[in-house]
Each structure stands twice: as C-alpha cells, then as structure tokens.
Amino acid sequence: MRPASRERRHKAGQWLLGGSLLLMLAGPALAQQVALAGLSANRALLVIEGASPRFMSPGQTSQGVKLVSAQGDVAVIEVEGRRQILRVGDAPVHVGGRAVVGGQRIVLTADASGHFLPQGQINGRSVQFMVDTGATLIAISESEARRLNLNFETGRPVRISTANGTVNAYQIQLSSVRVGDVQVYDVAAVVAPQPMPFVLLGNSFLTRFQMQRQNDQMTLEKR
C-alpha cells in the first residue's frame, strides 16, 4: 500500500498515524488567573482572568474554572483536574497549565538594601517573604501564622535563638510554599512569638534548590 503523502496526512492540525488520530496541540494549556471577591450563602463571587466578578454555585463551570465548594471565607475551585483553595482578600492565583506545575527556576533581584523580598504563598495564602540563608527553617510570627490559619499550637514545641535571646516556638510542616511559578510541598517551618515584618524564607525551602548569586541577582534552580 502506497504511503499517504504529507499533505494528505496533515490537515487542520491533525495527523493520521497507524490508523489512529493524533491531535497536534498548539501549545501547553495556559493557567487561569482566579481570585475570590466574596461569598454569599454557598455561592462564590469569582474574578476569572480579570473579567467582571460573577457568582457561581458549586458544580458550575465558567471559562474552564469549576467551583467545587464555598463555605465561610473559603472556596475550592478546580481547573484541568487540579484543585486550589481560594480565600477572600488573597491575591489572584494561577490554576491549571504550566504556571502551577512546570516552574523550575526562581530569579530574584535584590532591593536597594541588598535584601531579596519575593512575594509568595503559604498553603495558598499570600505572604511577603525575605530570603534568609542563615535561618534553618522558614520562620513565621504568631500573628502571621494566625492570619494564615495555621494550627501551630499543635506543633512540636522548640526553643530557638533570636536577636533578643532564646524563645519558645512551635515547629510545624507547611503543606505548600510557592514563589513565582515554583511550588514545593511539605516544608518545615517554625512559628515564633515575636513580630516580624516578613516571613523568613529559610533553608528548609532554599535547600530544595541549587542557588547561584551574581551581583544583585539570585537564581534558585529546583533540584
């Protein structure tokens, strides 16, 4: 049997190969940017890709975003089989596509004081980090831990050294920590009583990466 010509085998982005149809996709699916603007009863007011907010009920889908549940100040959405928790007032998150699962590199630029201050997320909630290579673990103040709804008082009591001496603290495990498009899971952290202007991004996160620094730029490449 004479092989089909290239023109016959390729049509409208489809390839016929061995009797089966192989769809040639234009590229990876893009992540959806979603924010939770409010809740009413069991409905969630979602902002998808910057469009006008719209109320959705559990089970409804809009622009590829499905609302799974809405209760209290929390909504659970699903995009391409991946679920994400949203909370009222948090920054928009990217769900689905490579923006969630494909990130391998973080590139940071120091501020005028030489500090690296990336924004990120802990367990899906927005935080302001400060990179601290001298910190063994991610360090969070008690007030920030409460804002993040971390049940830290069930953690392991520990004693840690600070600039003001040794204090009692709690060691916990964070479900997820995200900076940019890179997310890692099950990260050790410590919750301390003293107030801190930032969440210290310590070595329990940083050692997951190969670190390089050149002048005012730091690159973290996922191991």
UniProtKB/TrEMBL annotation:
Keywords: Hydrolase, Protease. GO terms for molecular function: peptidase activity. Residues 127-205 form the Peptidase A2 domain. This is Aspartyl protease family protein. Pfam families: gag-asp_proteas. The keyword Ribosomal protein does not apply. The keyword Protease applies. NCBIfam families: clan_AA_DTGA. GO terms for biological process: proteolysis.
